[in-house]
Amino acid sequence: MASLDPHKTGFLLxxxxxKRFDDVVAVDDVSITIQKGEIFALLGSSGCGKSTLLRIxxxxxxxxxxxxxxxxxxxxxxxxxxxxxNMMFQSFALFPxxxxxxxxxxxxxxxxxxxxxxxxxxxxxxxxxxxxxxxxRKPHQLSGGQQQRVALARSLAKxxxxxxxxxxxxxxxxxxxxxxxxxxxxxIESVGVTVVMVTHDQEEAMTMASRIAVMSHGxxxxxxxxxxxxxxxxxxxxxxxxxxxNLFDGQLSVDEQDRCEITTGQGIMHIAHGIxxxxxxxxxxxxxxxxxxIAKTRPDVSVNLFSGKVREIAYFGSYTSFVVExxxxxxxxxxxxxxxxxxxxxxxxxxxxxxWWDEADPVVLTQ
Amino acid sequence: MNxxxxxxxRPGRRWVIGVPFVWxxxxxxxxxxxxxxxxxTDMGNGVDPFAPxxxxxxxxxxxxxxxxxxxxxxxxxxxxxxxxxxxxxxxLAYLTSVKFALWTTILCLFIGYPFAYFIAxxxxxxxxxxxxxxxxxxxxxxxxxxxxxxxxxADQGVLNNFLIWLGVIQEPIQMLYTDVSxxxxxxxVYCPFMILPLYAILVKMDFRLLxxxxxxGASPWNAFWLITVPLSKAxxxxxxxxxxxPCLGEFVIPxxxxxxxxxxxxxxxxxxxxxxxxxxxxxxxxxxxxxxxLVPMAVYTHYSAERDTQREA
Lengths: 367, 313
What we know:
Largest sheet of chain B: 2 strands, antiparallel
Number of strands of chain A: 20
Distance between the termini of chain A: 42 Å
Structural class of chain A: alpha+beta
Oligomer: heterodimer
Structural class of chain B: mainly alpha
CATH class of the largest domain in chain A: Alpha Beta
Helix content of chain A: 10-25%
């Protein structure tokens, strides 16, 4: 179906979307473009406006200003029950007085589908989520994982153009969550529906989504693939929010075409690209813990080499995390993968260690 | 609960469940047995209603149960003087009582449901205040409140005067001592008994279910009928019972606000008791009414309990 507005591309667009509650701005000038077939995640801590944005898409909230275009049609004035959009609720919101079959058939009956077709469609959905044997059960007789699959089947039954997932795995315990993540993505991809999901769990966003929008205080700070968000954060907030990171504040001291130097409290840090900024401008060097090497003996490197004392060691199974304190009192987090079972790390508490990183690995942040 | 379950209970629990049982035994079962006993005595000959039913006279045991008290509720003499089942004044009183109790229940449901719904959906901070407003009338005497309606509905009452002042009517309308005034009074008095159980159910309802229903294409009206009403069924049944049952035997409101033509059962029992001085018939009337209420209730409870066990299985 061709977009009605030839200047816009993308399946779902929000244009300068604003939502105000009294004097609180929950969604602040959000413009995002989502392509057909994408799994798009809105990621942020609670109160960042991601849920309000999702509720605007579902039609439960009216935007204060701005437009929402689905396939080129402005849907802002449509009631929730008029939108070709279905939502899977965080609490699943299964109807307790209806059994699994009736829950899935609920939406189909509302659009007046003839009953033989409803039966076919419901059976198809039950098959998709592998709950055929549970059709006659009531929701309270199902486990959390099964309830989640019923909720998914119910929201997919009407073949929505857009599927909204509100903290899709939030109600499940951790072990079940990991297994369900892949199951959910497989089902969504087999159906081929466009998805917007909301989550506060970065791991969930990164494993499930094709692109992520990081939100804070109602604004979208960065949109990108999980890798872009992780490896190239555009500012301190995004860098700090996604995963762990060491941030070193400093000033630009040398800036050339293909390299620069930044003077920080820990000394001079070398970066393998130019900044194109004024000498003396404040910058932040951001280095992920797993990009830093650690050893007791001095390595054969000349730049980005620092030393300190080991203060904390935490064993996480797949990796070990060290907290190293430098002479100036600054702590740096470093992680080492535990690649071999028999590997014995000889570093222990209070050891004097060296740590260093490659010139290409840090990210330079301007704000 | 059956005997098998009872014997399996630990002693402490037997005490906890036993106390209400004893209460029911003393204040319901025993009076009911006394009533049953009076209903089969023959008082026509000036016999004491508590005279023994079983007597040994001259070497033979006489058990005298006068079931005529019950027959006379349903039978009357026709033109030829033969007793046949017909529309006795008692039968009419039963039907009138059921009719008005039913209408009151329906009116209370229609007025009480929106009321309970909006209290349940109001902000948490103002809910106690709204509930207080529902319960506030109980602080005034029941009789006083019913009398107040006399003042409102009388020919020279507040409502008629107001309507004449407005120019809507020229002459006062007869409102007091009609079926309408009786229904107004009963609906007014019993509405809180409908609102409170409905509120208790609705406040527990997860209103996200309504959002889910809207999301799946149900209009607000559809969502109300398909989600809210079925989920508040228990409240509707409880509220309806709490209104219907006392309305059936209501005596004060019909005698203060009701007309002369539609006599309800409470009035008939009173008349038999104190005007005709026919205690056995009054007792028989009361026993039949209790059975009218208890039998459908027992059947309903039995089947809903059966359904619940099926659901658990």
